[in-house]
Amino acid sequence: MESLKIAILATAGGLITSVPLAFMAARNISPRPIYYLGRGIIILARSFHPVIVAIIFVKAVGFGPLAGALTLVVYSIGFVAKLLAERIEEIDFGQVEAMRAVGAPFLSTMIYAILPQIMPRLVGLGIYQLDSNLRASAVIGIVGAGGIGATLANAFGRYDYDFALAITMVIVGAILISEAFSGVIRKRMS
Length: 190
Prior knowledge:
By secondary structure, the protein is mostly helical. The protein has helices at about 1-25, 30-45, 50-60, 65-90, 95-100, 105-140, 150-155, 160-190.
């Protein structure tokens, strides 16, 4: 349950943070300094493997699920913000020009002209990232960032391979259930 909570919390936090970063990192709507700042943050989030980020957060906030959730938020930002920024750069710019022509402010233009065009991609990325975070939560737990990975590491440390196999089967089962759930959501969206 802890791994599932970490994955859900990290996905939500990553999506909420990725949307403004994606707007910052889209070349066609951001001023050049903001664009470079947004791209720099995304590059920094993508630069390190989640295990390395987990070790840093374990040192910063201690062992447990908070370190795991923060790690997966960074991991989510690196993936979702990059792909969302690329989608923003591919939008039909006619709607943006129409909103600007009638004098709409920048925030209204983003909400009514850009966001509806990127929403299907955002939902798809959110579903994929939840799957990915669920898998990654097992891995980062091994270095002390909470979740089922910590239990798995303890089982290996005690040479309790039967229990380790049971935990591995739980991880595989959780990912299968997550995959089935995301399949149902994708069918309903199309």
